[in-house]
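Need tokens for this chain, all 237 residues.
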Amino acid sequence: MEKLLYPLWKPATETADEFRDALLQTVSPGLLEIPGLRSLRLCVADSAVEAAAGRRLVSSGSAADAVLSLWVDNAGDAALWEPLIDGCAGRRNGYQVVESEPLVNQAAHPCAPGERVFGMCHVVFFRKPVEMARADWLSAWQGGHTRVAIDTQSTFGYRQNVVVRPLDEDSPWVDAIVEENFPPEAMTSDHAFYDTGGDEALLQARMKAMMDSCVNFIDFESIDVIPMSEYLLKPLD
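Here are the structure tokens for all 237 residues:
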């Protein structure tokens, strides 16, 4: 199987919630009927995460409004699903990725297929520092940072997607796409985000630990951080 991520931009005439509803009610049912589609997830920047606007960071100039994640038997069958996506989105990019899931969401906040997942999902697009070798980057991120992220934040779901290739020539290169689940209080509270219980000294220590770790493997001039709502429409068996 292969995992594909499609960042999507809404049509200019639609609101964020209208775009979400179109993806949930029109696109997703069609995708779920495709043979060989093993799992489907939607993340979308809708009104439910408006409170998290202060956590949004956009360096690309135009952050995606949604991301569709598809697990498929064969990425070469894209003609089966990309027309459905194109019929709803104003534009799209696409990436084939390799996923690691060091923190599984369903264990903490299970939800039925199609339900909105608890809290918010931070979707992060980033590149490695240009001078950094890919092997060193992967070691710093997945070998070192993963434990720091889990230990210093209130995440209950964490998926790391290493980009293998863009799916078309119009998709700009990114090295990684991260999906992190946080409780709803983390939208507006740093203490909730870093799981400090209100301890100011612990907050400062955890914020510093995160930043000291992140600068080792992220090019902060090319990062997009987008709070989104998440819908797991078809779990991976």
